[in-house]
């Protein structure tokens, strides 16, 4: 495991359950590989509004 893993946020459309499932599998795989990946599916109810939560996650993510 990397001591300071990269942080990423996956923002995606909720077109279908199949698409949401693929995004969840991708995020889980990235986490298995040591990347600190965040998606909305990990939080049932955010501690703040969704727009504010997304802005915070974007700011905290590492840019490429």
What is this structure's SSE topology?
Layout: E1 7-9, H1 17-32, E2 36-38, H2 50-60
Parallel strand pairs: 1-2
Describe this structure in words.
This protein has 64 residues and is mainly α. It has one domain. It has a two-stranded parallel sheet with strand order 1-2. Strand 1, helix 1 and strand 2 form a beta-alpha-beta unit. It is globular, with a radius of gyration of 12 Å. 5% of the residues are buried. The model has no long low-confidence stretch (mean pLDDT 85).
Ends apart, CA distance between termini = 20 Å
Number of domains: 1
Strand/helix succession: EHEH
Mean pLDDT: 85
Global structural class: mainly alpha
- What is the overall shape? globular
Give unreliable regions as ranges: none
* Main beta sheet strand tally, sense and closure: 2 strands, parallel
Which strand order spans the largest sheet, edge to edge or round the barrel? 1-2
Radius of gyration: 12 Å
Give the tags.
globular, two-stranded parallel sheet, 42% helix, 9% strand, 64 residues, mainly alpha
Structure summary:
With 64 residues, the protein is mainly alpha-helical. The chain is 42% helix and 9% strand.
């Amino acid at each position: 495991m990397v001591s300071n893993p990269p942080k990423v946020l996956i923002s995606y459309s909720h077109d279908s359950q199949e698409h949401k499932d693929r995004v969840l599998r991708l995020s889980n795989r990235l986490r298995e590989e040591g990347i600190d990946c965040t998606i909305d599916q990990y939080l049932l109810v955010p501690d703040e509004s969704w727009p504010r939560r997304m802005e915070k996650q974007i700011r905290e993510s590492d840019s490429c």
